[in-house]
């Protein structure tokens, strides 16, 4: 019986083609700027997303941190959603390491921040206040795709107020595939973007920060400072390049699997939120821990949360989705 791991799309194993690309990668010392594969990855993604430069880093957390620190100085402020990864799930790094004050705002149901409330949160130029410098958005946000018109409006607002606009695009390609647009149609609105290679794209490690040459130059210095200067990192960058060249279009399959899972659970009477990409949210209430244990016995790994998140990815096959629905059906009959 295969193990089905729906806890996250970070759990994927490198595919055979990816392992081969890693094995054959040309390498050098990337701190000297001499790793040809890292350089290729950075240039490839920057060009694809419409930026002058890119920077390969070990994690999305570091990528976001360097982006925020490159935009904001000590005593500056960034506006961000209460549930956003940079604010809630990165150990408070922007505040701890960057002395950047977050101004969190409640989020709308579609994953956006209401722009009138963003505008109201921007502080006047007054020595009592931190200097509001940046708005950070996340796309996808809990599996939801931010509307393109919203991004254009956010760009316009930040332009009017002289703010920079950063995208935590950990799952940028899920959004692009869902919308059926090139990823740069999304990133065109932003001054910087962080992309995770190790989520649905299936690489074992790595994220890339993209932005202007000046911004990335600053981020490169900061990367060294926080210990993210890696040496023969091309062995990892090769996996990222392979993912970008071969494993983007297939994200549509993950989205279809999430739809299939949601439909199956709905039919069983579960309260399932509408699915857009590769995440299914279902209310399981106080049965969460029992459900997790029940599924674990059947080779299905879940987290235990009343609002349970299940994430599809390249190591989950169609038949396995059906196995999960069957397990929920059996659990329901207890
Ligand atoms: C996973 C994730 C990150 C951070 O990535 P790590 O590589 O785990 O540090 C940032 N933002 C979002 C939305 C994520 O899902």
From TrEMBL:
- Domain Aromatic amino acid beta-eliminating lyase/threonine aldolase: residue ranges: 5-284
- State its Enzyme Commission number(s): 4.1.2.48
Report keywords, A-Z.
Answer: Lyase, Pyridoxal phosphate
User: InterPro entries, alphabetically?
Assistant: ArAA_b-elim_lyase/Thr_aldolase, Low_specificity_L-TA-like, PyrdxlP-dep_Trfase, PyrdxlP-dep_Trfase_major, PyrdxlP-dep_Trfase_small
Q: Which GO terms describe its molecular function?
A: lyase activity
Q: Which residues form a coiled coil?
A: none
User: What cofactor is needed?
Assistant: pyridoxal 5'-phosphate
The cross-references to Gene3D superfamilies, in alphabetical order and at most eight, read:
Aspartate Aminotransferase, domain 1, Type I PLP-dependent aspartate aminotransferase-like (Major domain)
Which Pfam family is an annotated match for this chain, by its short name? Beta_elim_lyase
- Signal peptide range: none
Family of the protein in this entry: Belongs to the threonine aldolase family.
**What's the subunit arrangement here?**
Homotetramer.
Q: What is this protein called?
A: Low-specificity L-threonine aldolase
Q: Tell me the organism.
A: Pseudomonas zhanjiangensis
The gene for this chain is: ltaE
């Amino acid at each position: 019986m295969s193990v089905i791991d729906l806890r996250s799309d970070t759990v994927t194993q490198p595919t055979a083609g990816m392992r081969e690309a890693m094995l054959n990668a040309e390498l050098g010392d990337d701190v000297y700027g001499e790793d040809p594969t890292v350089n290729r990855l950075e240039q490839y993604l920057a060009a694809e997303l419409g930026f002058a430069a890119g920077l390969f880093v070990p994690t999305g957390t570091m990528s976001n941190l360097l982006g925020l620190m490159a935009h904001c100085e000590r005593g500056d402020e960034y506006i961000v959603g209460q549930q956003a990864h940079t604010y809630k799930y990165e150990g408070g790094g922007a505040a701890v390491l960057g002395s950047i004050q977050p101004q969190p705002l409640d989020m709308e149901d579609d994953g956006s921040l209401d722009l009138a409330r963003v505008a109201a949160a921007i502080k006047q130029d007054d020595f009592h206040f931190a200097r509001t410098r940046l708005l950070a958005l996340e796309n996808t946000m809990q599996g939801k795709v931010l509307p393109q018109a919203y991004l254009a409006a956010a760009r316009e607002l930040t332009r009017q107020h002289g703010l920079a606009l950063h995208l935590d695009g950990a799952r940028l390609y899920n959004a692009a595939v869902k919308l059926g647009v090139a990823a740069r149609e999304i990133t065109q609105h932003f001054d910087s973007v962080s992309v995770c290679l190790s989520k649905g794209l299936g690489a074992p490690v790595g994220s890339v920060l993209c932005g202007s040459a000046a911004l990335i130059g600053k981020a490169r210095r900061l990367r060294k400072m926080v210990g993210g200067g890696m040496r023969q990192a091309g062995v990892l960058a090769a996996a990222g390049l392979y993912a970008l060249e071969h494993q983007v279009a297939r994200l549509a399959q993950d989205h279809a699997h999430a739809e299939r899972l949601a439909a199956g659970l709905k039919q069983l009477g579960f309260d399932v939120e509408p699915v857009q990409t590769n995440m299914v949210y279902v209310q399981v209430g106080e049965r969460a821990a029992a459900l997790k244990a029940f599924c674990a016995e059947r080779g299905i790994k879940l987290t235990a949360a009343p609002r349970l998140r299940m994430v599809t990815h390249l190591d989950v096959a169609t038949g396995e989705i059906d196995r999960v629905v069957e397990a929920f059906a059996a659990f329901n009959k207890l």
